[in-house]
Amino acid sequence: MNQQQMSIENKRRGERGSILATAALSMVSLLLAAGLAIDVSHFYTAKAELQNAADAAALGAASQLNSTSGGIQLAVSQASTAMNKYDFARTLTISDSNVTFAKNLNGPYVSSATAQGIPTEIRFVKVTLTPQPVNTTFSALVLGDSQNIAASATAGFSVGLTMNKFYTAYAFVESPTVKFVKGTTLTLNAQAGTNTTANSYRILEGPDGDLIVTGQIHAYGYIGSSYKVANKTAAEMCRMAKIGTNTRFGDYSPTAVHPNVNPTDEPPDTITQENITYAQYRGMQGAGIKQHAKGVMNRRVITVPIIANNTYNTSTRNVVSNRLAGFFIKKKMASVLTTTNCNLEVEYIPAPIAVPVGTYTPGDAPMSELSIPVLYK
Q1: Using CB atoms within 10 A as the burial measure, which of 171, 182, 364, 366 is most buried?
Q2: How far is residue 91 from each of residues 52, 88, 133, 146, 186, measured CA to CA in Å?
């Protein structure tokens, strides 16, 4: 083999070695890029899951912001409860420092201890979760062994609703010249379905007939809506109200009078202590007090259509709501066995309260006293 041929062969061998090295380097780069893509995708998934948990925590907390210091306490505990319904591959914890409060969406946000001193001003809650380490699988050389993922969410009251679902089967009747005053205790008496007397209550007629007010009506309530009052005497209204009210305090006696009423279908409240204010009631909830083992929170809080007696149609028993508002039942009514002493004592909750289901439609009349929790950012 002459010198020229040997030179060509050596060159070809060098080129083959160079191609192998380049191919190997390209393969490593490709694998690294694929691993990086997988890890980044995993980080995005973890971030989305953590953000879902933060969103749930903020909405859960906002649902408790009913302008009381007990509501602030409940907001912190409910944030933790709602968040841990999401599976983030590990248990997340929320402390007081993770939940802050404000009266304006853009802050400033203050601690729960500060918020408890100004509960009537608080309208928004922010949940900031502690950064969580997410392990790197394929690209540790580039990204390190793990990356910290953080999330936060802010929720608060909506604007006043134009529709509220699940209102209670009462109608409270007031005079257009002497309206019910927010923050006061009202003592209302039963009146017949064709009676227009103010400062009183009626039982509403439901789609399946007259309703005992042990539960809530699964219907839509609006300002200006027409409701139909049950065709009952005052004594019958009284009896139905007593059953519906007293079961909320765990009183199901005497069973001979209403044998089908039971704690499963008509559960009591968790707090059954009588003659307390709404603020005290919320404070007891915030402290974790549970006085009835089968109780359901907020059974003593009802939303009710308020009716002006000058719009009451005694012929059809149709009534039109001025507004829907929240009330707190302060105590049990007299025994179901009596047809007298039909007084229902309630506190007119002064501040906006969050309800489970409602909507806002621009142009419709808003109910400034009712809202739903809304996720803002």
Answers
A1: 171
A2: 14, 7, 13, 18, 46
Provide the 10 A C-beta neighbour count for residue 289. Answer: 13
The verdict on 136 and 188 lying in the same domain is no
Residue 339, classified by CB atoms within 10 Å of its CB into exposed (0-12), middle (13-18) or buried (19+), is middle
Distance CA 223, CA 226 (A): 9
Domain region containing 18:
3-157
Q: Where does a domain end: 157, 176, 191?
A: 157
- Same domain flag for 211 and 289: yes
Q: What pLDDT shows up at residue 243?
A: 87
Please enumerate in sequence order all residues whose Cβ is within 8 A of that of 365, keeping only pairs 6 or more positions apart, or say none: 162, 222, 223, 224
Q: How far apart are the first and last CA of the chain?
A: 79
Global model pTM greater than 0.85: no
Among 152, 187, 177, 147, CA closest to 275 = 187
Q: Is the pLDDT of residue 25 over 80?
A: no
Q: How far from 143 is each of 39, 43, 140, CA to CA, in Å?
A: 9, 11, 5
Residue 249 pLDDT class (50, 70, 90 cuts): very high
Confidence of residue 205 (pLDDT cuts 50, 70, 90): confident
**pLDDT of 314 above 70:** yes
Residue 110 forms beta bridges with which residues? 101
10 inside domain: yes
- H or E element, residue 195: none
Q: Residues 241, 258: contact at Cβ < 8 Å?
A: no
Candidate ranges 128-132, 195-199, 214-218, 266-270; pick with highest mean pLDDT: 195-199
SS3 assignment, position 104: coil
Q: What is the pLDDT of residue 29?
A: 61
Percent of the chain at pLDDT > 90 equals 48
